[in-house]
Automatic annotation (TrEMBL):
This is alpha-1,2-Mannosidase. The active site is at residues 112, 278, 371, 392. Its cofactor is Ca(2+). Transmembrane segments: none annotated. Gene3D superfamilies: 1.50.10.10. It comes from Merluccius polli. Pfam families: Glyco_hydro_47 (PF01532). It is found in: Endoplasmic reticulum. Residues 527-564 are annotated as: Disordered. Ca(2+) binds at residue 494. The keyword Hydrolase applies. One of its GO terms (biological process) is endoplasmic reticulum mannose trimming.
Length: 583
């Protein structure tokens, strides 16, 4: 097979030798090294920056970037459990719950409305030590035409957290403030606004221009929310937005990167697999896997045909005009490095392997991935020379190692560890690289470094980790037969927070049963009334139906923790400008 032959060739070219193998002992050593990296950054953050959002690794202090939510700590929470530090996880979970005040007057604050929307029910929702994994759906557009400076907080987001147990086997999300979150979807097309004030709704002056990813990156979280709570509104809104986006694709099957959600006109007609579009494509694939939904997969496959036909050249992906397919920007953006991982999920391994090698060659050239890389010139692009320690290429390496067992991906992981240690380590953390050409540093450590970069690195070197489970495990059942939690098949959202498909299945099953039971009880207590029993569509969750039985007889109240959508938005903050730059 062609792919196999190429792998052998590449191994030779990489100079690692075709006999390149990591022993179990070496893997263990590297895992320890990744843990040391994590603790160096994590403890530095706690000692020098907490309770600010981010650590400033050059000046050894902290700064608020997204509204003082102690964001780095929230984001790092489930990484603690991935690394097996349950005691610290529990300590921090309690700390956050006790100290972080989500009830702040910040525009587009998802926390504020979540808390207020439930009448300050935080006491009742105090989480137990079982929870972990904060998840938020990302939307984007920061810096793009859809970005309104005055609403610079998190974009419309799920005002809820969702939580897995320390065994990674249970998933629970609190209900979101429907008025706040769903208000963004009240448009003539069903595609959401990019920003919304969750308390007051969409501002009358709000622009209707939203980036593609901001329209199409809801299905994982919203479906989970609907299936766990029984409230169908969220999944319906997410699907409606996806359908609307689908119907606006060009005659050659491509979508642009910013659309007017009222007029359905494409405002920015450049298309590619990176900034402004990326997680839309990611969520079609991951949504199809999580929900076993052929329709979502078909959409992706059709886009993929057009993407391969018009944007791929020598296994690089360029930017093209969505109607004509003409090349507009022959660059590789570091955000695009998730693509080989996604290709491996849909089974296009040969293409994934070749594209990964292209991206890896850029990494080797600079010891990191510049934000933009000119494919024609083989060099960085002016003002886009930074590497803020992004996770995407490491994420792809994790999927490709899983799919192929080829130790080339481990070699890349080790290269990544070594360059990060050599270039960006400071006495108190890891600093974003301002310029990959001279390795000058920025005084920032973005929270996705601990949430995603370290997590994917660790998972790359721990192939036996439960989050890689393919469906053979599982420890307990809810709601009867065939309902095993923690069996594997985890899907990572675009922030690297894992979702258990078993939990979705079990909980929606559970929600249906509970609804049926309630209907029966209701019909018994009100014999004269003809109850409208609809087991397919459970009614809106009330406080009763939000709580999901953990074990027979045991009830858990809804945890109110929620988190902002910082990392994904931040990733686009720099890049979004490219679409507005007149140059
Ligand atoms: C967990 O994290 C804390 C804080 O960094 C640390 O003191 C402790 O040694 C860690 N425990 C394990 C088992 O790694
Ligand atoms: C939120 O945005 C609105 C509209 O731009 C502005 O008037 C208001 O002062 C902002 N509120 C806060 C707390 O930033
Ligand atoms: C591929 O592109 C060519 C034009 O370059 C077009 O004629 C053809 O229909 C396209 N095929 C697909 C599957 O998009």
């Amino acid at each position: 097979m062609r792919g196999g032959w190429l792998v052998v060739l590449w191994l030779g070219l990489l100079g690692g030798g075709s006999g390149l193998r990591f022993t179990d002992h070496e893997m263990e050593g590297i895992r320890q090294r990744i843990k040391s990296m994590f603790y160096h950054a994590y403890n530095s953050y706690l000692d020098n920056a907490y309770p600010y959002d981010e650590l400033r690794p050059l000046t050894c202090d902290g700064q608020d970037t997204w509204g003082s939510f102690s964001l780095t700590l929230i984001d790092a929470l489930d990484t603690l459990l991935v690394l097996g530090n349950n005691t610290e996880f529990q300590r921090v979970a309690t700390l956050l719950q006790d100290t972080v005040d989500f009830n702040m007057d910040v525009n587009a604050s998802v926390f504020e409305t979540n808390i207020r929307g439930r009448g300050g029910g935080r006491e009742g929702g105090r989480p137990t030590s079982e929870w972990w994994g904060v998840c938020c759906p990302p939307t984007c557009c920061l810096g793009g035409p859809g970005w309104s400076q005055s609403l610079a907080g998190p974009a419309p987001a799920l005002s809820s957290g969702w939580l897995l147990t320390s065994q990674g086997n249970y998933c629970l999300m609190s209900d979101a403030n429907q008025r706040g979150v769903l208000a963004a979807f009240q448009t003539s097309s069903g595609m959401p606004y990019g920003t919304v004030n969750l308390l007051r709704g969409v501002s009358p002056t709000e622009t209707a221009v939203t980036c593609t990813a901001g329209v199409g990156t809801f299905i994982l979280e919203f479906s989970a929310l609907s299936r766990l709570t029984g409230d169908q509104q969220f999944e319906r809104a997410a699907r409606h937005a996806l359908q609307a986006l689908w119907s606006t694709r060009s005659e050659i099957g491509l979508v642009g990167n910013h659309i007017d959600v009222q007029s359905r006109k494409w405002v920015a007609q450049d298309t590619g697999i990176g900034a402004g579009v990326d997680s839309y494509l990611e969520y079609l694939v991951k949504g199809s896997i999580l929900l076993q939904d052929q329709e979502l997969l078909n959409m992706f496959l059709e886009y993929d045909r057009a993407i391969q036909n018009y944007t791929r050249f020598d296994d690089w992906y360029l930017w093209v005009q969505m109607h004509k397919g003409t090349v507009t920007m022959p660059v590789f953006q570091s955000l695009e490095a998730f693509w080989p991982g996604l290709q491996s999920l849909v089974g296009d391994l040969d293409g994934a392997i070749r594209t990964f090698q292209n991206y890896y060659s850029v990494w080797r050239q600079f010891g990191g991935l510049p934000e933009f890389y000119s494919i024609t010139q083989g060099y960085t692009v002016d003002k886009r020379e930074g590497y803020p320690l992004r996770p995407e290429l490491i994420e792809s390496a994790m999927y490709l190692f899983r799919a192929t067992g080829d130790h080339t991906y481990l070699q890349f992981g080790l290269d990544a560890i070594e360059s990060i240690e050599k270039i960006s380590k400071t006495p108190c953390g890891y600093a974003s690289v301002k310029d990959v050409r001279d390795h000058k540093l920025d005084n920032r450590m973005e929270s996705f470094f601990l949430a995603e970069t370290i997590k994917y690195l660790y998972l790359l070197f721990d192939p036996a980790h439960f989050l890689h489970g393919a469906g053979e495990g599982g420890d307990w059942e809810v709601g009867g037969e065939g309902c095993v939690l923690g069996a594997g098949g985890y899907i990572f959202n675009t922030e690297a927070h894992p979702l258990d498909p078993g939990a979705l299945h079990c909980c929606s099953h559970h929600a249906r049963e509970r609804q049926e039971l309630q209907d029966i009880l209701l019909s018994l207590s009100q014999p004269s009334q003809n109850t409208n029993s609809q087991s397919e569509t459970p009614t809106q969750a009330d406080s009763q139906s939000e709580s999901i039985a953990l074990k027979p007889g045991e009830r858990k109240t809804t945890p109110p923790l929620s988190c902002p959508v910082q990392p994904f938005s931040a990733r686009l903050a720099v890049l979004g400008q490219v679409f507005t730059d007149p140059t």
